[in-house]
Each structure stands twice: as C-alpha cells, then as structure tokens.
Amino acid sequence: MEGDPVNYALGWYQNAVNSDPNCRRIPVVNVANEKRAGGDWESGLMAPEECFARRSNLVHALTMPWNAQLGRDENFYPIPQRGGIFSPEVFVFRGGPDQDYATFNEIASLPVISVAPVRRPKLDETGTTYSFAQEKELMMEKMRAVLRIASYCGHRNLVLGAFGLGPIFRNPAAEVARIWRRLLFEEEEFHGAFQDVVFAIDSSMVGAPAKGCLSDLETFKREFDPSKIFPISASRWHYSSSEE
Predict the structure, then answer these.
(1) pTM reported for the whole predicted model
(2) Does pLDDT of 159 surpass 80?
(3) DSSP string, 61-94
(4) Would strands 103-115 and 85-94 be described as parallel, antiparallel, or unpaired?
(5) Beta 28-31 vs 85-94: how paired, if at all?
(6) pLDDT tens profile 20-78
(7) Sheet holding 28-31: strands in order across?
(8) In the structure, what pLDDT confidence band is assigned to residue 90 with cuts at 50, 70 and 90?
(9) H-helix or E-strand spanning residue 221
(10) CATH architecture for residues 5-243
C-alpha cells in the first residue's frame, strides 16, 4: 500500500486495540544506516530513517546514551552485516514531513527493528538485477534477519517499508519484492510465523519510476498478486468448471 510505514503501524495498532485491549503493538522496520544511528537526520536529508529520527526518540533508542551514566559499555554500531537492533519501544511525538513534523496531541510508541540494507549494489545494464550473487545473497540475509528478529520477539504482525529501495540504497525493487515473497511463503523457517505483513511504501521516499517502468509500489503489487502466490493450474481450473 502507499503510505508512511510508521503512520501505518501506529494506525493499525490503534484500530486493533479498540477491539482487543491486550493486542501487541505493531513493529516497523527501520531502514538503518549501518554506521550511525539516524543516519544524516540532522542535515535535513529526506530518507526514511532520517525522517523517522526527526519525529521520535529513535536515535536515543538506538544509542542508549544513558548507559554511560550507568557504567555500561554497550554500542550496537556498526550494525552487524547479518544482524539488526530491536528497540521494544520507540516514542513518536511528531507527524512526518508531509505534515511539517507537527507535534502530536498524544505521544505514541511502537517497536522498531533496525537493519541496514545493502548499500548501492552493482546492477546489470537494465538496473533491475544484481550483478553479483554475493550482494544479492547478503541482501537476502539482511531481510531474513528482519523476519527472525520479529519472530523471535513474538510479533506476528509486521510493517515493512521500502527496505533498501530508493536513491540512498538503490536495490532493485523487483528483486527485493521477489526475495520477500520467497522468505515469507517458501522458507520453512517462517511458515506460520506471521499473521499479517504489510508493505507500506512511501513514494516520496523512493522517487519516481523510470520512463516506461512500474513504480516500486506497483512492482510489489505484481509480485504479491494472490494468483502468483497461490497459482491454480489451467487443467485443474477447466476440470472444476466442467463439473459445475
């Protein structure tokens, strides 16, 4: 769906808690900078993590500056190549850039899974396929880490944004969508692990598609078309029709 993943996760939880006061908050995936919490959030860069950092305490949640006062020497950076950071509660107190970061009337919170995508992999001449199998495999491992963290922490619902897409990371949308589908529907490790997974893609963060190409959102819609995930063979369809 089109939209901001943080807003979607907060709204999803708010709707769910009205019918089930005991439901868990919905985690969102932070498209993280591998070296610096919040990336270049202070510079005004318009990218998913940076915009998220300006509207929340994300940077503090990732760096935990209070540890120094407690005598703890903990530092999660750089984020491991095949790992991530789970923040059980990040407080959100402003709207996004489309709302000029207007202050919320009430502070909201949600769990956050921070994983750094592959940054600017080498692509083929079409710009739609990884040139090197090693970079594609590493990207898959990072995406697998997202799902493992969510599953390990007991979250059956999850909001995924434009992980690794757009001008900052430049991973090919079709390949990324295909990997997500493979992990969610074909890998035994994640069978039954999740109830609902939503891809919320903010087009303002990924940029316009090249001329004649599908947008990233349309690419994901095509890859996750139910007929593609649960195909029905033509022979079976004709057989069923003849029995009616």
Answers:
(1) 0.89
(2) yes
(3) HHH-THHHHTT------SPPTT--EEEEEEEEEE
(4) antiparallel
(5) unpaired
(6) 988 999 999 999 999 999 999 989 889 999 999 999 999 999 998 655 555 566 678 99
(7) 85-94, 103-115, 28-31, 157-160, 196-199
(8) very high
(9) helix 216-223
(10) 3-Layer(aba) Sandwich (3.40)
The interaxial angle of helices 133-152 and 173-186, nearest 10 deg, is 50
Cα gap 14→17, rounded to integer Å:
5
Concatenating the DSSP letter of every residue in 3-41 gives S-HHHHHHHHHHHHHHH-TTPPPPPEEEE--SSSTTTTG
For tokens 């649960």, the residue is: 230
Cα–Cα separations (whole angstroms), residue 88 to 27, 63, 129, 136: 8, 14, 35, 29
And the tokens for 204?
A: 């303002």
Q: Name the least confident of 144-148, 155-159, 230-234.
A: 230-234
